[in-house]
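ERR on first pass: missing label on line 2. Operator R.T. fixed the label and resubmitted. Corrected input:
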Amino acid sequence: MSEVSLENVTKRFDSTVAVDDVSIDIDDGEVMGIVGPSGCGKTTALRLVAGFETPTDGAIRYDGEDVTHVPPENRNVGLVFQSYALFNNMSVLKNVTFGPKMHGVSKRERRERAEELLELLDIEELADRDPKTLSGGQQQRVGLARALAIEPHILLLDEPMTGLDAKLKQNLRQELGQLLEDLGITTLYVTHDQEQAMSMCDRIAVMNEGRLEQIGTPAEIYEQPANEFVAGFIGTANLLEGTIRDGTLSLGFGEVDAPETTVEEGDVTVLVRPDEIPVGDGPLDVEVTNLFYQGEHVQATAELPDGRELTLRLDRSRKTVGTGDTLSIDIDPSSVHVIQSTE
Amino acid sequence: MGADHVSTDTRAAESVQATLKSLVSPASERQREIRRIVALCIPFSILLVFSGVFPLTEMFRISFSESRLVTEGFTVEYYRTLVTDPYYRNIAFNTLWFAAATTVTSICVAVPVAHALEKYALPAKSVILTVLSFPNSLPGIVAAFMIIILFGNTGVLSNVFAFLSGQSRIDVAIATSVGGLFFAYIYSMIPRALLLLRGTYAEVNTDAEEAARALGATPLQTFRYVTLPQIKPGVIGAFILVFRTGLAIFGTVLILKGLLVWTLQIDRELAQGFNIAQASAMATVWFFFVFGFTVLALRYTSAEVSI
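pass 2 clean. output:
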């Protein structure tokens, strides 16, 4: 295990800047997530750490040692792919022993190590199976066992759960989260799924158009997003324009006390999460324009008195609410976060 | 019994009638599909009968004819000659070893070229591809002429080798030797192998190759353990295709004559010996050998090539 750092890393492909001056330090044993929309550069960042791409500028360090120009086979990284990428010409056991074999581990030791990992991942009965005959979830476990078999400096997970069904994804997420915690292995987890990242990672780096927008714990990213992009990408966000004067935040349709942490005066953009807006009792009436039943709750779009839209989260007890109904809401100053405008 | 026979005939006639009716006025989607298949296959079926089945049948008949020029009587003499006469046995041996050697060489050259073409962003890739596929559309006679230009008595490379070695140009000229023929063969065979191998390479799971690298495999080990097993069906397919090409080459060998092979001898039987029956026996053996080789190769390998 080790610390891994990206230092001011930039990667250009011709005129396209895939990764733009990104710096991320991953602590020993930490699970770092990189999230962002498609094409934001997160997979390129992972490939830079793995050694499949060389930075145009900047450096990659493992335990302080510069590995920027070290080829992938000498970096000792465990890589798990979205497509599983198992060796279909080998049995499951041979897939898992492949890495140790390339590292010169004795036949006996690599077999023991593989059997141990297959047992840990609860797939020991699949040892002699052909990877092509396995389900997606089983293949992903084999891929994970194979990556762990080399006792890597860092485990790189590239969208490992995309393509699995929702139930399996949920189970695997819990198991993988627990496994990473138990093993204490330094991990870089790349995903476009913010929920997975929030539940599994110690810290999250949010990327957009090659740039690092924010890095922090899931709670920091969710509750104190650095800008509108992060606020909008992580969770559901109500972004409202307002003005702060003399400690009062004017939102057009009403006024609340400005958040205590705010030092800015003038025009601002504020974030209010739907789950932080109490519905049912409050001074502000809104008209429901749309409802989206989501099982555990109902998401509603409502129109504010000044015509702007607000997203609300209703619990299931309010399933009788229909479009056109009026709801009373309250906006608590403590739930309002002033964020930096990205414009 | 007789009534049964009549009844069977009637049923068969009714079945044919129903099939024809379904082709003219199909009533279900399946029948419409069959009509489309029949319509698509008719031109090729006509071609197959007139340019394939008919001449092959005639050739087969003449090969058992007692007369050298026309179909008359029955004899296996020409086949016996092919088996027992050391002259023909030697030609068969020449044909097989030369086709095998040029095939192996062509595959060995084509695999790294296909690898480079499919794995790396080469500059002017489309120009390289055009140059590499060019021999596919060149007649063998032109290929032979190019070898003469390069390796003939006054050839460009012969001049260079003569200058470097201090020998005479005639001594180093190899165009009409086995060596010259070898170059001419692989010149025609490499592009064919490439055609198939590039298609195979395009389907290689690059994630698996990267996984192997991350697990500590060098590029060579990655090729050995991950890439090669994936391209194996393509390599075997290319071997079958190129070997068949090697057996069939005629124009090139007609000009260069470096080695007496089966196709050249068929020409000699026809043009010099006027022995159509012997030529037919040789062509029949050639046909069944190639057909049998391909069927067996496909049966016992995972090759990706059709008969």
